Amino acid sequence: MRIIAEKKGGIGFLYGFVAAVGIFMIGVSAKEEEPAIFIAGLIVTLLGAAILAGVLMTPKRIISLDDSGMLILHFCNKTISPSDITDVSYYRASSRGFQYEWGKLTITTRTDKYKCNYVANVELVSKELTRLMYDQQNANQGGYPYEAYR
Amino acid sequence: MKVLAHRMTSPIFIYGFLTLLGISILLVASGEMQAGMITGGALITVFSGYIFIRGLLVPKDIISIDENGMLILHFCNKTISPDELTDISYRDYSRYAVYPGRLEITTEKDVYKCSFVADVEKVSKELTRLMHESRKAPSYTQETR
């Protein structure tokens, strides 16, 4: 079995810290009796906790390829063949115009669409899945003639 | 001949407008002799003007495919075969209209980069499809199993 995609490490710590800051703000607001700090703390806590929950629910191994060439999508407990894939898209997480290596992966098959966030090296993963998809299609069809896309 | 990639226009308009804004600030500030505004106006003019001119230098049709299946890269005046392609990458900033989409085409010999590509993800997928379809032998599948 070969691992194709893994979860980006460190995001859980980051958003855990954000949620902790929010809880600290709520604590300060209770002591100082400041409703504005309480509301800000509540928003920060809820946002941090929601993202943290999403990160924790994502498995460490997101996608792997088994010995029979089937793709195991651990994040949704599905097994698909690379030839079922019709499209692979990705979006790199960004902040103020700077793009990170991790991001969101979308795998489209003939019947379903699978989305997973916090994928490490999402561009490379997308390229690998695209390569597997085309290799499988080429293997099934014996290659594409040039005339097919002219 | 089929055009695969067009130039995006919205960032060019935005940076053209910002350049004009920078020039206006410069004109107003130089009349009133305000050093801070002159510096700000000059920075906006130089930064926006640079991106604006770079955008204008990109041809309207960036990549097309001719009747023989050859890819014509108009932005660098090169013609390559799809089977020469080894990698296609893109940077899609479409969520932020002010950042131009960038395409990177890697062949066995060279790397060609072009910014201001409209629908850069779609273009990248089309080029990736052409690249993989031009490779008839399924060489990778056996290795991965």
- Taking pLDDT < 50 over at least 5 consecutive residues as the criterion, the unreliable ranges of chain A are 144-150
- What composes the largest sheet of chain B? 4 strands, antiparallel
Q: What is the helical fraction of chain A, as a range of percent?
A: 40-55%
Percentage of residues in strands of chain A = 25-35%
Question: Outline of chain A, from the CA principal axes?
Answer: elongated
Major sheet strand order of chain B: 1-2-3-4
Oligomer: heterodimer
Judged by helices, strands and strand pairing, the structural class of chain A is: alpha+beta
Task: Give me the count of strands of chain B.
Answer: 7
The chain-level mean pLDDT of chain B equals: 86
Instruction: Give average pLDDT of chain A, whole number.
Output: 87
Helical proportion of chain B?
A: 40-55%
Strand order of the largest sheet of chain A: 1-2-3-4
Summarize the structure.
Chain A is α+β, with helices and mostly antiparallel strands. Helix content of chain A is 43%, strand content 31%. Chain B starts with a strand and ends with a helix.
Describe, in plain words, how this protein is organized in 3D.
The complex is a heterodimer of chains A (150) and B (145). Chain A is an alpha+beta fold and 150 residues long. Helix content of chain A is 43%, strand content 31%. In chain A, strands 1-2-3-4 form a four-stranded antiparallel sheet, covered by helices on one side. A three-stranded antiparallel sheet of chain A has the order 5-6-7, with helices on one face. In chain A, α1 runs antiparallel to α2. Residues 144-150 of chain A have low confidence and may be disordered. Helices cover 46% and strands 23% of the residues of chain B. Chain B contains four helices and seven strands. Chain B has helices at residues 10-32, 35-57, 120-133, 139-144; strands at residues 2-6, 61-65, 71-73, 78-80, 85-91, 102-107, 111-114. In chain B, α1 (10-32) runs antiparallel to α2 (35-57). At the A-B interface, β5 and α3 of A face β5, α3 and α4 of B.
